[in-house]
Amino acid sequence: MSPLYNDTLLRALAREPTEYTPIWLMRQAGRYLPEYNALRARAGSFLALAKTPALACEVTLQPLERFQLDAAILFSDILTVPDAMGLGLFFAAGEGPRFERPLRDETAIRRLAAPDPSAELGYVLEAVRQIRSALGGRVPLIGFSGSPYTLACYMVEGSGSSDFPVLKTMLYQRPDLLHHILEVNAQAVAHYLNAQIAAGAQAVMLFDTWGGNLSAAGYEEFSLAYARRVLRELRRECDGRKVPAILFTKGGGQWLEAMASSGFDAIGLDWTVDPGDARRRAGARVALQGNLDPAVLYAPPERVRAEARRVLDQFGALPGHVFNLGHGITPLASPEAVASLVDEVRTYSRAQRHAVPASRAAIPGST
Question: What residues act catalytically?
Answer without folding.
Answer: 27, 31, 40, 77, 154
